[in-house]
Write a structure and sequence with these properties.
With 317 residues, the protein is mainly α. The protein has a domain of 111 residues. The protein is 64% helix and 0% strand. It contains twelve helices and no strands. Helix 4 runs antiparallel to helix 6. The chain is globular and about 45 Å long. The relative contact order is 0.13.
Length: 317
């Protein structure tokens, strides 16, 4: 059934769906339910990938049902799902470059452009380019042929899809939606800047040149937004090593940034019931739930203590 919901109905339904999102108590229950038996049995990587695919489908079922509910919001829902299709493309590209990968797919049902069977075809980058020439993924293959270039252009394509989805929104909604996009981009830039410096030893000049590829895609003043997030992080958290058991490294910074972003997006959800705010914020909160559930699967795979696994969950306390 298509176009069966007006905006007020959709927003009311989104409010109800948000109420079903997990908090820390629900994640702790999931952790207990999924804990392996005490006989030492550990799932292999294939089992772990299959488990994540099932979790993803379970979480996304409501989104699949809402894509066609409203013509006004349809581009936004499609752009959201395409972020996962781009992850599938990056997996195919990694295989094409003979990288060692875990073949975890994001099933998108009737909204998928890429079929899971492509994993068995072992296509070259050229073969993928030929398959995708007339699709929204074609820009990934526009120039250059190194693995890193493909990865950067894939991420850039995802950002463009999100930005293009705002074209169908009214002026007020578009302004609100772009505020969300730019704030999220600022969080990512702050995280990437620290990780590239700490983990890869990149100089400031090299980092800024690399990040410029993403800034060019986005409208607005990203440097000031990024600085705003970093200043807020410093105010809220103080000493980066203050959290118990943590060191002031890139991973800890990323966790703190994600928690700040989580609180920001929760407030954004309630800013205006009649605007795009609840729909856009809910989609991000749902994607965060997927990551949290995947973190539980990974934590159990590596037999981490429950408090460590729950300590990396980004949610309400």
């Amino acid at each position: 059934m298509k176009q069966y919901a007006d905006r007020e109905y959709l927003h009311t339904r989104i409010y109800a769906m948000k109420g079903r999102l997990y908090g820390l108590r629900e994640y702790a229950a999931v952790l207990r339910e999924r804990e392996p038996s005490r006989d030492g049995e550990r799932r292999d990587e294939g089992d772990r990938a299959a488990e994540k695919e099932i979790l993803f489908t379970d979480v996304m079922n409501d989104v699949f049902r809402l894509v066609e509910a409203s013509d006004y919001h349809r581009p936004l829902f499609l752009a959201f799902l395409r972020q996962y299709e781009i992850k599938n493309l990056k997996l195919l590209l990694a295989k094409a470059f003979k990288k060692q990968v875990i073949e975890q797919w994001y099933p998108l049902g009737s909204y998928a452009l890429l079929d899971r069977e492509l994993l068995d075809e072992n296509l070259s980058p050229g073969g993928l380019k030929e398959r995708l020439e007339e699709t929204y993924l074609a820009p990934v293959f526009q120039s250059g042929n190194t693995f890193d270039r493909f990865m950067i252009r894939a991420d850039a394509t995802g950002i463009r899809e999100i930005l293009h989805s705002a074209d169908s929104l009214n002026s007020n909604d578009r302004e609100l939606f772009l505020e969300l996009v730019h704030m999220r981009a600022a969080v990512l830039l702050a995280s990437w800047r620290r990780r590239l410096a700490d983990s890869y030893g990149w100089s400031r000049e090299r980092i800024e040149a690399w990040l410029e590829a993403f800034r060019d895609i986005l409208e607005g003043d990203l440097p000031s937004l990024s600085l705003k997030m970093e200043e807020e992080l410093e105010r809220e958290t103080g000493d980066p090593g203050a959290r118990a058991g943590a060191s002031p490294d890139a991973e800890d910074l990323e966790y703190r940034l994600e928690m700040l972003w989580y609180r920001w997006i929760r407030h954004f959800f309630y800013r205006d019931f009649h605007s795009v705010c609840p729909v856009a914020a809910y989609l991000w909160l749902l994607s965060r739930q997927v990551l949290n559930l995947f973190g539980i699967v990974d934590g159990l795979r590596f037999q981490l203590p429950h408090d460590v696994i729950l300590g990396r969950i980004v949610t309400d306390s």
